[in-house]
Design a protein that fits this description.
By secondary structure, this protein is of the alpha/beta class. Helix content is 41%, strand content 19%. The protein contains 11 helices and 12 strands. Helix 3 runs parallel beside helix 4. The longest helix is centred in the first third of the chain and has 17 residues, at 30-46. Residues 1-5 have low confidence and may be disordered. Bound molecules: alpha-L-arabinofuranose (AHR). Keywords: Signal.
Length: 309
C-alpha cells in the first residue's frame, strides 16, 4: 500500500464529517421550498452536518447567521443572499476566520471577488431574455398589435429581480410595440403578486395585454386577481413567468399561463460536492451555471410528470 507516514490517510480525513452552515433566504415561494429540500436531502445523503438558518427574507438575519457560523467555526459557510449589496463586512470576517464561503442561487455585488470561493446558480439575465424572446415571437405573429406589459418584480435589490428585469427589457427593446406600462415588486410571493396585480388592474384594467412575473408564485397570485376581475388569464392577458414549478405547469394545463422559463432549485448535490472539494484544497470553478430550459403551455401536460419540483 501507499506510504502515508505521519499524515492522516485519505480515509481518515473522509471520516471526519463536514460541517456546513447554510443561510437560506426564506420560504417565500414553491421554488424556495424545493431548494431547501434539495440542500437538506443532499446533506443527509452525503453525511454532511448541516446547520440550517432561515432568514425570513431579511439581510440582517443572514448577517447574524453568518456571524454565528463563524463563531461556531464551521468548515464552510454557504448562503443564498437575499439582496446583492452590503456583504463586504461580514464576508471579510469570514475570510479573516479562514472559512470559505460558497454562494448558491443568488449572487453578491462585491468589488473583492476573493470574498467567496464559488457561486452555484442560474444565469438570471438569460432567464429574463428567454421570457422576452417568447414574447417577441408571439408578437411577431401580429405585427400591428401593441402589447401593454405589466411587470411583477421580485424582491427589491435581489439578483434575480435586477437581472430578470434587465434581460427582459434588453430583448423587448427591439420591438417598439412592446411597452412596459407598470412595474412593481411583489416580493416573490403569491399574496403580494395578487395584491399588486389587483392594483394594476384597477389602474389599467382591460388595456393590460401581458403579465411578466419574475417568478411563478407571483404569477399564480396574479392569475387569481385577473380571474376575480372577470378576465381570462392566458387569453385576455398573456402570462409569462419564471421558475417552472409544478404549480406553473398546472396553470398552463388549465390554460391560464402561457410560458414558464426554467430556474432549477436543485442545487443541493452540487453544493455538497463543491464544499468537499474546497475543504480538500482542490481548485473549484468560480461560477457554476445551472442548465435550464423554457416550457410553453403546449408542452405542459407532457412535461408535468417529469418535473422534480
Ligand atoms: O432566487 C431565485 C428566486 O427566488 C426564484 O425564482 C423565486 O421563486 C425565489 O423566491
Amino acid at each position: 500500500g501507499a506510504f502515508t507516514g505521519v499524515f492522516a490517510s485519505p480515509s481518515a480525513l473522509a471520516a471526519k464529517p463536514l460541517t456546513i452552515g447554510f443561510s437560506q433566504v426564506g420560504a417565500e415561494s414553491e421554488w424556495r421550498t424545493a431548494n431547501t429540500l434539495s440542500i437538506k436531502d443532499a446533506a443527509k445523503k452525503e453525511g454532511v452536518n448541516l446547520k440550517f438558518a432561515d432568514a425570513q427574507q431579511r439581510q440582517e438575519n443572514q448577517v447574524k447567521a453568518i456571524r454565528s457560523f463563524i463563531a461556531q467555526r464551521v468548515d464552510v459557510i454557504a448562503f443564498s443572499p437575499v439582496v446583492e449589496s452590503g456583504w463586504e463586512t461580514v464576508l471579510r470576517e469570514a475570510k479573516d476566520a479562514k472559512i470559505p464561503v460558497i454562494l448558491t442561487d443568488r449572487a453578491v455585488n462585491v468589488t473583492d471577488q476573493s470574498l467567496y470561493v464559488a457561486f452555484i446558480g442560474s444565469d438570471f439575465v438569460e432567464e429574463g431574455r428567454r421570457a422576452g424572446r417568447w414574447l417577441m415571437e408571439r408578437a411577431a405573429k401580429t405585427p400591428d398589435r401593441t402589447f401593454n406589459i405589466v411587470e411583477l418584480q421580485g424582491t427589491v435589490g435581489s439578483a434575480p429581480a435586477i437581472d430578470r428585469k434587465n434581460g427582459f427589457a434588453e430583448v423587448i427593446a427591439a420591438n417598439p410595440k412592446l411597452k412596459i406600462t407598470r412595474s412593481q415588486t411583489g416580493d416573490f410571493t403569491r399574496a403580494k403578486g395578487k395584491e399588486v396585480m389587483e392594483a394594476f388592474l384597477k389602474a389599467q384594467g382591460k388595456s393590460i395585454d401581458v403579465l411578466y412575473a419574475h417568478n411563478d408564485d407571483m404569477a399564480i397570485g396574479a392569475i387569481q386577481a385577473i380571474e376575480e376581475a372577470g378576465l381570462k388569464p392566458g387569453v385576455d392577458i398573456l402570462v409569462i413567468s419564471i421558475d417552472g414549478v409544478k404549480g406553473a405547469f398546472q396553470a398552463m394545463i388549465a390554460g391560464k399561463m402561457n410560458v414558464t422559463v426554467e430556474c432549477s432549485p436543485l442545487l443541493g448535490p452540487q453544493l455538497m460536492s463543491i464544499a468537499r472539494d474546497v475543504v480538500a484544497g482542490k481548485p473549484v470553478p468560480k461560477r457554476i451555471t445551472t442548465v435550464e430550459g423554457v416550457f410553453p403551455a403546449e408542452v405542459a401536460a407532457k412535461e408535468l410528470p417529469n418535473r422534480k419540483y
